[in-house]
Amino acid sequence: MFVTAQQLEQQMPDATRLLSDEPEMETSLHYMQLLLLVTSLEWLWNLWVWNW
Fold first, then answer.
1. Plot region of 30 (φ>0 → left; ψ -120 to 50 → alpha; else → beta)
2. Sign of CA dihedral 25, 31, 34, 36
3. In angstroms, what CA-CA distances link 18 with 1, 8, 24, 30, 49?
4. CA–CA dist 51, 43 (Å, integer)
5. How does pLDDT run across 14-51, given as a tens digit for each residue?
6. Which residues have a Cβ under 8 Å from the Cβ of 26 and sit 6 or more positions away?
7. Is 35 left (phi over 0), alpha (psi -120 to 50) or beta?
8. CA atoms of 34 and 28, how far apart (whole Å)
């Protein structure tokens, strides 16, 4: 069974009506955490590649 993009869009809930007490993910702290994660992974990857 195949679903078109329009059918999938109709099945998706309206996100503006969802209630949540969770903080937004788009904060500067979140971006800093992502930066730290990506930087650490790149550093480890480079360390692993050069020692291989």
1. alpha
2. negative
3. 29, 18, 13, 21, 45
4. 12
5. 877 777 777 776 788 888 999 999 999 999 999 888 88
6. none
7. alpha
8. 10
